[in-house]
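Handoff note, outgoing to incoming analyst
You'll be picking up this chain. Sequence as last confirmed:
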Amino acid sequence: MIRKAMKEDVVAIVEMLANDKLGRLRENFSDPLPETYYDAFEKIDKDDNQELVVIEREGRVIGTLQLSFIPYLTYQGGVRAQIEAVRIHEDFRGYGIGQEVFEWAIQRAKIKGAHVLQLTTDKQRPEALRFYERLGFLATHEGMKMKLI
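Most recent structure output, in case you need it:
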């Protein structure tokens, strides 16, 4: 089941975000979890342009994805959908759950009237790039980032 994330899901979400070579460097999965995560959850939850979802199986959160809707003036006042923070718990990878959540995100973006669905992936994750390409995403643009902190 894919459902809207709740405050009670934050610990499971952060655990998945922290459980890879890049996440370990930037996340702080500790007990108790820093309040900054709950503050961020509240901001996301209150923003109509943000949809943080979890994938649940038998009462356990096993995946997550954040879908953002960005209204802008180009494309005659279009909406761009952005996928972020996709994670599937390591015990559940290889069972098609990632594809399931992406199919959900694609349909959700269409329902919300987005004309494009985009994502970025770290170049240190070539397996993710191959997965996104199999889903139909194309590397049509070169992305750039500037660290501010």
